[in-house]
Amino acid sequence: MAKLHLDMACTRSDRTEALFSGAVHPEGISLTCIDLPPHEIFWRMVRFEEFDVSEMSLSSYMIAKERGRPRLVAIPVFPLRSFRHSFIFVHKDAAITKPEHLKGKRVGVPEYQMTAALWARGILQDVYGVSPQDLRWVVGGQEQPGRTERLPINLPPGIEITEVAQDTLNAMLSRRELDAIISPRFPRADGSPLPCARRLFENYKEEEQKYYQATGIFPIMHTVAIREELYVRHSWIAPRLLRAFKEAKSIWYSDLKTRGVLRIGLPWIAEAIEETITCLGEDFWPYGLAANKRNLEAAARYSYEQGLTHRLFTPEELFAPNALEEVPV
């Protein structure tokens, strides 16, 4: 029987390398992997459903899931996770030395709905008592002007947002027109870090480890989504893609733990891996529903509390029913 051809837009990384290289083939599927930056993938998928399968912002996926447009079905694969304490940047001359000092300040984000901002707002509220309503939000392109929300959002009263079309967040921070930026990217100008920018949490690694020890959460940023129309016709692809992603992750784990060959060109990578395993556990990047329920519950709660979604999803509702658990071999 001929294999089903699918194209998949996904950032090429150590987690997905085996799918790109062909070392792993999903059973019954001829997979063409397309390497694109995440923000481009998300825009093209939520606006035009251009790909059969794609990496997808978890926050935007929950918004789309509630609205039924674009029509997507996710599998519990998480190509990107990231702690977010280290991605809150403030102007070095601002009197902001702890999270509470952000209250009343102008804070830039490339998109209010982006998952990085969802988690940062949730952590600021849960851990430090700083709510989204306490900040004055500015939305726009960080390095290039004109960025807008990839999906329209309808926020509750009390959230102050200013959209900036003709300027950039980095330039506004350098002119002290912003007090802070929350973004996956360090603020830069002409290819170099902005001298005026510093991290809110200078000891961010310690704060992030404390957060994990308190919550057990290594925040999920991205999932993997299938066009619903395709899933309805070929529902079998969901568990097979899940299995393929797990196989690719196993190869990555094996490469990480290979001691005889330095596969990543960093001299103390072995120490970093050992520290990560000590802190986060042997399977520190789990796929599947069971190992990620607490993580997904927090993300869904933040989306609901912040008004991005208007119903509270359970983790089970977010994913293809036949990919919630694997059949034992």
Number of separate strands: 13
Look up the CATH topology of the largest domain.
Answer: D-Maltodextrin-Binding Protein, domain 2
Tell me the Rg in angstroms. Answer: 20 Å
Annotated CATH homologous superfamily of the largest domain = Periplasmic binding protein-like II
Overall pLDDT: 96
Content of β-strand = 15-25%
Provide the number of structural domains. Answer: 2
Poorly predicted spans? none
The SS-based structural class is alpha/beta
Strand ordering within the main sheet: 8-7-6-9-5-12
Task: Please give the share of residues in helix.
Answer: 25-40%
Largest sheet: 6 strands, mixed
CATH architecture of the largest domain: 3-Layer(aba) Sandwich
Shape: globular
Span of the ends, CA to CA: 23 Å
Total helical segments: 10
* Topology order in helix (H) and strand (E) letters: EHEHEHEEEHEEHEEEEHEHHHH
